[in-house]
Amino acid sequence: MSDIEFTIARILRDPLIRQVLRADRTSLFDFARLLRENAIRIRSASTSSRLIVQPMPSDRRDQDRRSQQSATR
Fold first, then answer.
1. Global pTM?
2. Beta carbons of 32 and 12 less than 8 angstroms apart
3. Closest by alpha carbon to 16, among 3, 2, 31?
């Protein structure tokens, strides 16, 4: 592993990450769970060789807005 690659444990110990979590009022436990769940999701997607990415709600609104603008033109 190169020095630029981070393990979940290393990310959770990083002082800058901890400061950002505090500023965002996110618990270390919740962030660790998020990282682990996504690691599992990515690992299982790579074995099935496809990763389905769902757009975030704000992305959907932007897409809907663009679709409506295109339809009215």
1. 0.56
2. yes
3. 31
pLDDT value of residue 27: 96
**CA distance linking residue 30 with residue 58, whole number of Å:** 22
Contact in structure between 8 and 35 (CB atoms under 8 Å): yes
Q: What tokens appear for 62 in the block?
A: 């932007």
Report in angstroms the alpha-carbon separations of 19 from 9, 16, 30. 16, 5, 15
The answer to whether the beta carbons of residues 59 and 35 sit under 8 Å apart is no
How many CA atoms, within 13 angstroms, populate the side-chain half-sphere of residue 15? Answer: 0
Question: For residue 44, how many other CB atoms are within 10 A of its CB?
Answer: 10
Amino acid letter for position 42: I
